[in-house]
Design goal:
Distance between the termini: 46 Å
Shape: elongated
Strand content: 5-15%
Structural class: alpha/beta
CATH architecture of the largest domain: 3-Layer(aba) Sandwich
Strand order of the largest sheet: 1-6-5-2-3-4
Number of helices: 20
CATH topology of the largest domain: Rossmann fold
Helix content: 40-55%
Radius of gyration: 25 Å
Number of strands: 13
CATH superfamily of the largest domain: HUPs
């Protein structure tokens, strides 16, 4: 198998599976669920309506949400009808975290984030055809509801003993922080969402992370009590790395799907750095590659891991899905050029700058000696070390070897920046003031 070009896998259901349920199980997307045989039959039958909710507790969705977005898309490709819910009301409350109370955001902030998240969710769904997606906001049915009506019509169906057993609530009750009535009530609001969507759209399935299982079953239980019917829920696994570290973080920071918060270049590098032990599972969850294609990459990981073919394909597919093929082409070109396999002068200025932001970097005045820039960027610890490195032929500036220590930095690359290299792989960016 050759290194992939910029042709990505089509978004489609793998026809080698008898049922979309079988495919999502093979991809490892079902950690917990309601009755599996009933779900398999439901997804194999006539189109159903299903939903996933996203709370605006930040200005962007992150990689954990990407699992849900792609699951929504897979089920839609199988013919089912998705509802993308952005929680204008639940975002004002906040799902209980295991350790401490959330800081409540202002109504204005939540409304702004609702719009941002709505736009992000819409990019992953199709709004055309017989199974066109629909976006909903739970503020539409909770805002008109009085406290008395909420308690009489919804609250009466909940038992406090059952609510106390939910994992997130139990964790908080056993912590020093305790839990407020506000966050304690969150599971009722999410249950109300499922009930309302069942009544309005005959919604039969909710998906979410397995850490949300208590909230997911809040809805299935409420519908069973109020309407006397059985609906379903799927809890996807929380993605973790094989070494036990948390997936979706880079140097302690969340990986966002908003290009302004995590640049496409940083996003690409995150996927490219996936460990061999994790890359096949990532291909299953985050790409539309077929089972046969993924099995080929598994063989390559086993026999030729040094080629990192699976990581390159993973990075290509996910970045193209999230940021588009043009941005993907730009970051691949930047990545290759920075490491000596392309033309630095041909790069897109914005992409080059975002790539240099991920490297050690410094801002200097035009005409600054290279020896000073080497120290400023941290590539060397002293001027004498900088001069020795240059004398040994181990320093390059903007792709050209630095011949002597009188050379200066001029910012000749697109966007008025420069790239310093010491040795083969140690790079730094230089911005001109």
């Amino acid at each position: 198998m050759s290194t992939p070009d910029l042709t990505t896998a089509p978004q489609a259901i793998d026809p080698t599976f008898e049922n979309v349920w079988d495919e999502i199980v093979w991809r490892g997307l079902v950690h917990v669920s309601t009755d599996q045989e009933a779900l398999r039959a439901l997804l194999a039958g006539d189109p159903i309506t299903y939903y996933c909710g996203f709370d605006p507790t930040a200005p962007s969705l992150h990689l954990g949400h990407l699992v849900q977005l792609l699951l929504l898309r897979r089920l839609q490709l199988a013919g089912h009808r998705p509802l993308g819910l952005v929680g204008g009301s639940t975002g004002l409350i906040g799902d209980p975290r295991p350790t401490a109370e959330r800081t409540l955001n202002t109504r204005e902030t939540v409304a702004e984030w609702v719009d941002r998240l709505r736009g992000q969710v819409e990019r992953y769904l199709s709004f055309e055809g017989d199974n066109a997606a629909r976006m909903v906001n739970n503020l539409d049915w909770t805002a008109p509801l009085s406290a008395i009506d909420f308690l009489r019509e919804i609250g009466k169906h909940y038992r406090v003993g059952t609510m106390l057993k939910k994992d997130a609530v139990a964790a908080r009750l056993n912590s020093d922080a305790g839990i407020s009535y506000t966050e304690f009530s969150y599971q009722i609001l999410q249950g109300l969402d499922f009930l309302e969507l069942y009544r309005q759209y005959d919604c039969r399935l909710q998906t979410g992370g397995s850490d949300q299982w208590g909230n997911l079953t809040s809805g299935t239980d409420l519908i069973h009590r109020v309407e006397g019917v059985s609906v379903h829920a799927i809890g996807t696994p929380l993605i973790t790395n094989s070494d036990g570290t948390k997936f979706g973080k880079s140097e302690g920071n969340a990986i966002w799907i908003d290009a302004e918060l995590t640049s496409p270049y940083a996003f690409y590098q995150f996927w490219l750095s996936t460990a061999d032990a994790d890359v096949i599972e990532r291909l299953k969850v985050f790409t539309f590659l077929t089972r046969a294609e993924i099995e080929e990459y598994a063989e390559l990981v086993a026999t030729e891991p040094f080629r990192r073919a699976a990581q390159k394909r993973l990075a290509l597919e996910v970045v193209a899905t999230v940021h588009g093929i043009e941005a993907t082409a730009a970051v691949i070109a930047a990545s290759e050029a920075l490491f000596g396999q392309g033309d630095l002068t041909a790069l897109d200025p914005a992409t080059l700058r975002s790539a240099l932001d991920e490297l050690p970097h410094a801002t200097v005045a035009p005409g600054t000696p290279v020896v000073d820039a080497l120290v400023a960027t941290g590539l060397v610890s002293s001027l004498s070390e900088a001069r020795r490195a240059i004398a040994q032929g181990g320093v390059s500036l903007d792709g050209e070897r630095v011949a002597d220590d009188t050379a200066t930095v001029q910012g000749t690359l697109p966007g008025g920046v420069s790239v310093l290299r010491r040795g083969k792989k140690t790079l730094a960016g230089v911005f001109l003031s």
